[in-house]
Structures are given as C-alpha cells and as structure tokens.
Automatic annotation (TrEMBL):
Lineage of producing organism: Bacteria, Pseudomonadati, Pseudomonadota, Betaproteobacteria, Burkholderiales
Primary enzyme class: oxidoreductase
EC number: 1.3.1.98
Name this protein carries in UniProt: UDP-N-acetylenolpyruvoylglucosamine reductase
Organism, scientific name: Cupriavidus campinensis
InterPro entries registered for this protein in UniProt: FAD-bd_PCMH, FAD-bd_PCMH-like_sf, FAD-bd_PCMH_sub1, FAD-bd_PCMH_sub2, MurB, MurB_C, MurB_C_sf, Oxid_FAD_bind_N
Entry function: Cell wall formation.
Keywords, in A-Z order: Cell cycle, Cell division, Cell shape, Cell wall biogenesis/degradation, Cytoplasm, FAD, Flavoprotein, NADP, Oxidoreductase, Peptidoglycan synthesis
Domain of life (superkingdom): Bacteria
Matching Gene3D superfamilies: 3.30.465.10, UDP-N-acetylenolpyruvoylglucosamine reductase, C-terminal domain, Uridine Diphospho-n-acetylenolpyruvylglucosamine Reductase, domain 2
Reaction(s) catalysed by this chain's protein: UDP-N-acetyl-alpha-D-muramate + NADP(+) = UDP-N-acetyl-3-O-(1-carboxyvinyl)-alpha-D-glucosamine + NADPH + H(+)
Amino acid sequence: MADFHEFYPLRRHNTFGFDVRARLAAHIRTEADLLAALADPRAQGLPLVVLGGGSNVVLTGDLDALVLLMEIPGYAVVDDGDGWLVTAGAGENWHGLVGRTIADGLPGLENLALIPGTAGAAPIQNIGAYGVELRERFASLRAHDRQTGAFVTLDREQCAFGYRDSLFKRNGRDRYLITAVTLRLPKAWAPVLNYGELARELESVATPDAAQVRDAVVAIRSRKLPDPAQIGNAGSFFKNPVVDAALRNALLAAHPSLVSYPQPDGGYKLAAGWLIDQCGFKGFDDGPVGVYGKQALVLVHHGGGTGAALLKLADRIADTVQARFGVRIEPEPVIL
Ligand code: EPU
C-alpha cells in the first residue's frame, strides 16, 4: 500500500514557502513505492506532480493531483578506468552529494556547490553555475517511463540538455519519473576557474583543490543569493535571454554598461539581472513578494503571499524590461 496523505500541506516542500495543499501526496523512498503509488486505486485519474526539493517550482494554488515526494536515497561509486561513475538516488540532496564526492576524493562537482534541490531534479533544468553545467558531468539517469510502464536508462544525448533546459521540460515532461542519476567525474581533474568572480575569489590560492573551489563557490553564493531556509525563493527566477549580435550591439551602443556573453552560435546571452536592475526593481517589494536586494534575478516571498501574486510581479518585471530593452525574459522555474 502506498504511503498516502490527503490534503497534504506543501509549504515545507517548496523553497518559496507557498502554503498550498496536495489532494494526495506520497513519500517515495524506493522504486517499489513509486510503482505502488502509481497503481493505487486512490491515485487513478489524478494528474501527477513530482517534487524533489521543490526548489525550482512556483505553486500557484492547491494541487488537485497526486504529488510524489521523491525521497529515494542512494550513493554508489564505480571505477570506469579514466573516470568515476557516481550514482545517486533521486532524493539525495544535491549539495550533500557534492560534498560527499569531494570528501571521497572525486572532484568535478565543486562549481555546482550549494545549488538547492535534489540529485533527481538536477538534470531537469540542467543546473549550472560558475562555469560548469550538469551536462558536462552527466552520464545517464534511470527513470520510470509512464508510457511503457518500464524502467529505462537515458544517456546524455537522449536527455537533450540545453541552457536550463532538457527533454524533461519539453516532450518528456509528463513521461519520465527520474529515480537515480549517474554522473561521470573524469580522474584527470583541473579546477574550472573561467568565471571571473570565482577566479578573483581564489586569487590568493596558487593551485586550488576541489574543496577550496567548493568553499569559494559557497562564499560567493552566500553573499548574493538568499538562503531558502530564511527567505522564500527559487534561485534565478528568469533565464538569461539569448539575442542575436545585431540586437546586442544596438543595446550595447545605447547602454555601454550592458552585461553580455558571446555564445558558440554567434548570439549573446544577456544578464537578465542587469536588465531588471536597470529598470529599478532590485529590492522592490510588492507586499509579501518582491525582488531580492542583492541580485535582481531572484524573486522572493517573505511569507503570507501566493504564487499567483509572485507571477503577477514577474509579468510586470518582464513587461517593463521588454518595453525598455525590447527583450522578453522568460521564467526559469516550473509553474504549477
Ligand atoms: N547584475 C546586475 N544587477 C543584478 C544582478 C546581476 O547588474 O541585480 C549583473 C552582475 O553585475 C553581473 C551579471 O549581471 O555582471 C551576471 O550576474 P551573476 O554573476 O550574478 O550571474 P547571473 O547571470 O545573474 C547566472 C545563473 C545563476 C548562477 C550564476 C553563476 C541563470 C538564470 N542564472 O546568474 O544560476 O549561479 O550565473 O554562474 O543562468 C539559478 O539558476 O538559480 C542560478 C542562481
């Protein structure tokens, strides 16, 4: 029998801290729990929602759904010659996993330290920070395929990763339930320090090891990003928009302090935080929801507000940025 709870409060299962309920929720600690929950008569006809750490969702109201609280544990390391294959259960805390691999002498995930959420959620938005994206360390994942009822292994190609994007945000969205993720950490390791701020943070260290890089990333993130345990948030709320060179050059001519990064395809990624900041929203509060004072890309919930109010603010910000710069910024979290 699945471990079901009716009208289950989700406030502690989403890092924005929105106080909504699930019609039905189940704690999933094994793949057998998952199959039992899916087969349970009480779940039939209900849409499915999967929550890991709830760190990349906006819950706009009560969910008339079966919410699977993914808590599958697991950690295993296999030597594959010139690399280590690290398999983590979908429910493992991401930052905990980063720390464990470093403690075990397996460097490679240090730039992705302190990203909230679970290992199983990491591939969905292809988490990335400080010069590294998950896809560069990804080998495969295991998932339950709801279309065939079987468990499948999907490799990097099949996951179709893009910037804050993957198969699981597109046509695989309601199809695959991720139960484990396997990373590949090459034994030949060198620190990735191409992100200016990280290089500066480590200036005084001649040859930083993975733990030192991790500590530097933690220090930078702690300065700029709010701790969800203290202020409700889901990290960057908008993706950095990619525009063509003509638009970027025109914007740069009009705004010499524009922050942009060249892309392999000739386009430019613009810093959405800069665009929002220029529109005067940094530190702006609209009652219980607002824009973080140290990083304009982060929307915050101070308590007592709703996901709907947050989305209203997000729309207002996107409209203002569009009117001023002619660029539409898109939300990054999954909106439910
Ligand atoms: N900026 C401003 N004002 C602001 C915020 C930023 O002018 O209020 C400028 C900064 O001065 C900087 C530039 O914008 O020159 C970029 O800012 P930052 O280095 O903070 O990075 P970001 O582009 O805002 C992205 C990711 C973060 C990731 C950092 C570091 C996205 C959507 N966000 O932020 O990811 O940690 O780079 O790699 O790609 C997340 O996805 O939740 C997240 C936090």
